[in-house]
Amino acid sequence: MLRTTLLFVLTALAEILGCYLPWLALNQGKSMWLLLPAAAALGLFSWLLTLHPTAAGRTYAAYGGVYIAVALAWLWQVDGITPTRWDLVGACVALAGMAIIALQPAST
């Protein structure tokens, strides 16, 4: 489970970086060269999704919960905005949903 969680976190970071860099270029006037590492990050994101051991749809559903938590950590660490208690409660609910999906009993 620890390996899967770490893989989800790395996947989320790659996706967020792949979207954040174009946002910097297009909305903050940063260099358009940022689109190159953004494309690489999105390619990495796609590849990382293929490493998850379960069906794609289940992987995406469980990944969503981790993505929410990682996005809020990004908000805090990169954007410098402290998440509200509502943000944190929402992340906990999303992570609980992820755990229900990821830890379900094996089909018989």
Give Rg in angstroms: 15 Å
Class of secondary structure makeup: mainly alpha
Number of domains: 1
Shape: flat
For the largest beta-sheet, the strand count, sense and barrel status come to: none
- How many strand elements? 0
Mean pLDDT: 92
Percentage of residues assigned to helices? over 70%
What keywords describe this structure?
single chain; flat; 108 residues; 76% helix; mainly alpha
What would your notes on this structure say?
The protein is mainly alpha-helical and 108 residues long. The chain has one domain. The protein contains four helices and no strands. Helix 1 packs antiparallel against helix 2 (35-50) and helix 3 runs antiparallel to helix 4. The longest helix is centred in the N-terminal third of the chain and has 26 residues, at 2-27. The two termini are 21 Å apart. The model has no long low-confidence stretch (mean pLDDT 92).
Give the arrangement of secondary structure elements.
Layout: H1 2-27, H2 35-50, H3 56-77, H4 85-102
Short description:
The chain has helices at residues 2-27, 35-50, 56-77, 85-102. It has 108 residues and is mainly alpha-helical.
